[in-house]
Amino acid sequence: MLIMCHPQFETQDDAGIGDGIPPIPEWQLDWIALSENRYDISDLGIDDEVRNVFTRLRNVFQWAQQIPFPTTRLHDLTCFVVHRLLLSTPGTDNTKSSPITECIRYTIILYMFLIQGPTYYPHAAMMDMIVTRLMGHLNELESTHRVYDSLDIWILAIGMVASTGTTNYSQFKERARGLSTSLRLENCDDALFHIKRVLWLEILQGENAFRPHWDSIIGKDPLEPPTYTIYASSSRALPS
Predict the structure, then answer these.
(1) CA 185, CA 200: separation in Å to the nearest integer?
(2) Other Cβ atoms within 10 Å of 52 Cβ, number
(3) Is 184 left (phi over 0), alpha (psi -120 to 50) or beta?
(4) What values do phi and psi take at 230, rounded to 5?
(5) Contact 157, 199 (CB under 8 A)
(6) Of residues 120, 123, 83, the one with CA closest to residue 229
(7) Cα–Cα dist 19/22, whole Å
(8) At 20, phi and psi to the nearest 5?
(9) Most buried of 60, 92, 117, 127 (most Cβ within 10 A)?
(10) Sign of the C-alpha dihedral, residues 207, 156, 4, 94?
(11) 9-13: Cβ within 8 A, 24+ apart
């Protein structure tokens, strides 16, 4: 998939039935009660398939806080989630989903690639394609009338990290700069508060991939931030 930039296999259903890539065992565990601070997506009109992946993935990440994932489990989860989300993208039969659905779809994919890191093959070509798709749907989303909130911070934060070093980076950064002013973010911790409300896997040094970007935006560091890649498998963020 990373070479061809499109799914190579089907996925099994949520219960692990059928042909294709199976879900990891945690995908089927009972729901964990979420804290009141968690961002609520129930009223956003998100397509069922994307909402299901988002909700189950959030639950999986909650379980991972209690029993951390081994590297192979995170790799298997990434393969399953990315294939499931790409396979359910609207086709050419005039089916069209909402911009918010597509922004969430592609942001989840980018985040999964970021936390997994290039285990076997580099993700650059695949991520560049996904970043470009996200930017297109983000342009559509911004043409609608809505109140900006934590979800927008989450999308732009992951978009910035994933697009660092590409032509799309400046667009994500300028949007994030405007949003930080609108939401009165005073520092990177304010941004991380919003990001973690939406969808976040707590890993050692994971925050370090985001801090340089927000410090640059909010004014603590006038220089361009270094390129950081999150490697959950090595439990640290490394400069690329």
Answers:
(1) 19
(2) 14
(3) left
(4) -85, 125
(5) no
(6) 123
(7) 8
(8) 115, -165
(9) 60
(10) positive
(11) 9/83, 10/83, 10/87, 11/80, 11/83, 11/84, 11/87
Task: Name the one residue in this structure whose structure tokens are 């089927």.
Answer: 28
- At residue 1 the predicted structure's pLDDT band, cuts being 50, 70 and 90, is low
Contact status, residue 180 vs residue 152, Cβ threshold 8 Å: no
Up-side HSE of residue 125: CA atoms within 13 Å toward CB?
8
Q: 228 pairs with which residues across the strands?
A: 239
Q: Which of 126, 93, 106 has the alpha carbon at shortest distance from 46? A: 106
146-187 pLDDT tens trace: 889 999 999 999 999 999 999 999 999 999 999 999 999 999
CB-count exposure of residue 130 (10 Å: 0-12, 13-18, 19+): buried
Phi-psi region of 70 (alpha: psi -120 to 50; beta: other; left: phi over 0): beta
Residue type, 174: E
How many angstroms separate the CA atoms of 44 and 57, rounded?
18
Q: Which two tokens stand for residue 53?
A: 């992946």
Which run of H or E residues covers position 237?
strand 236-239
The pTM of this model reads: 0.88
pLDDT of 97-154, one tens digit each? 899 999 999 999 999 999 987 655 557 788 899 999 999 999 999 888 888 999 999 9
Neighbours of 73 (CB within 10 A): 16
CA distance 207 to 4: 31
**211-218 helix and 169-182 helix, angle to the nearest 10 degrees:** 60
Query: What are residue 208's phi and psi, to 5 degrees?
Result: -65, -25
